[in-house]
Specification:
A hairpin with a 5-residue loop joins strand 7 (about 90) and strand 8 (about 95-100). This protein has helices spanning about 1-20, 65, 100-110, 160-170; strands at about 25, 40, 50-55, 55-60, 70-75, 80-90, 90, 95-100, 115-120, 125-130, 135-145, 150-155, 175. The strands form 3 sheets. An 8-stranded mixed beta sheet has the order 1-9-10-11-12-6-5-4, with helices on both faces. Helix content is about 25%, strand content about 40%. It starts with a helix and ends with a strand.
Length: about 180
C-alpha cells in the first residue's frame, strides 16, 4: 500500500511540475486587416507601433484625458471606433507605484475587472483586459523600463464589424520594426 501511495505521490508531483502556468502568445496576422486601407505607424518614441486605418484622424485629447496620461487619441472619421494611448504610472491603495504586469492585474482584480490575461503580444509581455462601463472596450497595457504603463484602449461604437476591427488593431500593436 505504501508503494502505491508513494508512486501516486511521485506521479502527482511530476504532473504538477509539468502543469506550470503557461503564458499565451498572440501574433499579428496581416489577414486581420485585409481590406482595411492603412499603414503601420510608430507611437511617438515609445518603441511601439500599430496599424492605423487611413480613415482615422488624430484628436486633441481632452484635459481629463491628459490628466489620465493620454498622449494620443485617434478615431475613425465616422466616429465608429476610437483609440487612445496613455502613458502613466498606476499606484496601489497605499500609494505605491505598481511596476509590473502581475501587480497591475492584481490592482485591476481588486477593482472589479474580471476579464484579463497576461500574455505575449507580438513577443512583448502585456496585460489584456476588458472594461465594462456603459460600453465595453478592450485594453492592452505594456510596462516600460521605468515602471510606467503604456495602455492602448480600443472603443468600438456599436457594430460587430467595428468590434472585430478594434481587436485586429489591438493585435497589431508591436515593437517598432526598423526598415
Amino acid at each position: 500500500m505504501k508503494k502505491i501511495f508513494a508512486l501516486a505521490l511521485i506521479l502527482m508531483l511530476a504532473f504538477s511540475c509539468c502543469m506550470a502556468e503557461e503564458v499565451n502568445a498572440y501574433y499579428f496576422d496581416p489577414a486581420f486587416v485585409e481590406g482595411v486601407d492603412g499603414n503601420f505607424a510608430a507611437i511617438g518614441d515609445l518603441g511601439l507601433m500599430m496599424y492605423v486605418p487611413s480613415n482615422f484622424v488624430a484628436l486633441e485629447p481632452s484635459e481629463s484625458d491628459v490628466a489620465r496620461g493620454v498622449i494620443v487619441a485617434l478615431a475613425a472619421d465616422d466616429g465608429s471606433l476610437a483609440v487612445s494611448i496613455a502613458l502613466a504610472g498606476v499606484a496601489d491603495a497605499n500609494g505605491n507605484l505598481i511596476t509590473d504586469l502581475n501587480g497591475l492585474a492584481e490592482f485591476y482584480a481588486l477593482n472589479g475587472v474580471t476579464a484579463m490575461e497576461i500574455a505575449y503580444f507580438n513577443d512583448v509581455p502585456a496585460l489584456f483586459y476588458t472594461l465594462e462601463t456603459p460600453v465595453t472596450y478592450n485594453n492592452l497595457a505594456f510596462v516600460t523600463e521605468e515602471g510606467y504603463f503604456i495602455t492602448f484602449s480600443f472603443l468600438p461604437n456599436g457594430t460587430e464589424e467595428m468590434a472585430n476591427l478594434a481587436n485586429s488593431l489591438l493585435f497589431s500593436v508591436m515593437p517598432v520594426v526598423e526598415e
